[in-house]
Design goal:
The chain has 663 residues and is an alpha+beta fold. Helices cover 25% and strands 28% of the residues. It is built from 16 helices and 36 strands. Strands 7, 11, 12, 13, 14, 15, 16, 26 and 29 form a 9-stranded mixed beta sheet that branches. Strands 4-33-32-34-35-36 form a 6-stranded mixed beta sheet, sandwiched between helices. A hairpin with a 5-residue loop joins strand 23 and strand 24.
Amino acid sequence: MIGNLTQNQMEPPFILSLNTAIIVGETGIETIEPARIDIEELYHYSYTMLMKYSQSFIPTLREVPADAAITSHQLMFRAGMLRKLSNGLFAYLPLGLRSFHKLEKIIREEMEAIGSLEIKPTVVVPGELWKESGRWDAMGDELLRVKNRLGGDFVISPTAEEAFTSLVRDELSSYRQLPISLYQINTKYRDEIRPRYGVMRGREFVMKDAYSYHAGEESLDETYQAMGRAYRRIFKRCGLSVIPVKADSGSMGGSGSEEFMVESAIGDNTLILCKSCGYAANVEKAGCKPDFSPRPSLEIAKAAAASTPPIEKIDTPAVKTIDELCAFLKTNAQSFIKTLIYRAVNVELDLNSAPGCAKLERRKPGPDAPEVCREAFFAVLIRGDLEVNEVKLAAALKAGGVSLAADTDVVRITGAPVGFAGPVGLSGIPVIADMTVTGLSDAVTGALAQDLHYAHVAYGRDFEPWLLTDVRTVRAGDRCPLCGGELYEKKGNELGHIFKLGYKYTKSMNVSYLDEKGESHIPVMGSYGIGLDRTLASVIEERHDADGIIWPITVAPYEVIIVPIRYDGAVKAAADRLAEDLERYGIDVLLDDRNERPGVKFKDADLLGIPFRVVVGDKNLAAEKPSVEVKRRTDKENVLVELSRAAGELAGQIKADLAKLNG
């Protein structure tokens, strides 16, 4: 007994004094001398069982799987971390799961450090909750809807706003309970039409989702900023270089939104960055400095058009595209107004006063959900040299999605073949104009008839839009909206995303609390997600070479791999003793005890990417000072280290590496 504790009541570690550490393990009590471990590190000490390669399940591959298109997919399969069950469905094997659990640990530590509390909702969620929020229909085919044996609707959760909000709604009553910050690390499912790139875009995946509820915007902003700082720490601890960018909230709704991206040649996202300042945005959200003279009001636009010749109809036989028109009229694309017909679904924007929308089918997905138009068409105008940003357009319309209308719909709406649409005389449909159109007082447009266009078309004089907004796709070479510097592009993958959701879910799902005066209010909400599978794959994408993975020490499945040249006799004894010494420092060790050629073991060690390799051989053990060869995964050469000092030196290097990433 020590003090009032018996051995059975102690959990490792236990500090007896400033000079002695007592470790309680399955084999009894062991004393560690102070020179071998810092007192502070005892709180992170773990007494683990030795893992031998022969007892593990690490089915490495020499060949690259045929369907593995990107590095992380290839290496996770080759290193025996992952196997595929079906298209977009992957199983983690023991090696991969060890790294996955270390990533989970980092995330939990950072979430708890900012006061977010973990819960575990179900993956299968009642469909009624999604109907309350209005997303049962708005989410589209990516939402996997199922029925149980009683005919009830359920959702295999792709995101958890509804589940968390329902749980909070049932418990929240007073302002004294706010703010609330909860998170999960949970499996999710999205019925991707084209899953690809291994776990980078699978159908089933794991995410950390946090949701916060507040009495006001100031409180929400505090949590939003704290989450942003926590995310930066999480990715730093994983050894990742992330680019925080302004982003679109998409179907999640809300106002403020920031994504955390990693640069990637196969990235799903285009990042717009400034060469001169810190501006960074997803192309879906990016803005730029105007390269035109905007007319902020119709009166100013009409005045600017006073000197423009009257509108003129011109014959353009067999000319439909902007490039063809430029050649035919001997002008440039900046002189054209491009008119595109778009179909939007599940539109929440009020269309009651919009042209041609009086008879649109409307419905309320839930008792308190906003009214939605299932389908509506819009004419979208933009300067001829630019492209419409469909994400911005969907956001402006508060639509579940937008797409170019089918040719038959274009003909029906415009009365003209595809390629001849224009705003002059167009009726029965809302016209949405990009801001660039306001700078055109002498433009060319389609004339709503085959082989005909209008010249000298002036914004404000010859047509007026129903809605004026920014739907421009920003591109490399545009000017920064902050400093005017040149913008450039990078490809990136999203790892994390934080949102200020506002009242989208708390209002539609009837969440309320009473303030100090007994008055009822709706809480404001935030949402914060990290994709764990993507993060792990991105570590490999960023940290690898021709031989395999190069794990950072924080998420490596093992920190040291011991490779005996031949696992018997003195070599076996030295390797076993070194493994035990390392484990006393709390270091994760893999001992390669296989009866394989040294070259095979070395290749596997490099492929697995374990940060430190220790080679134990007869020759070095027989030297005057028995030694082993120590090699960092990132170094080219081995270093001879005395066997008696090897464990201590490795522990010091690992401690330094951890401090660098965790600091």
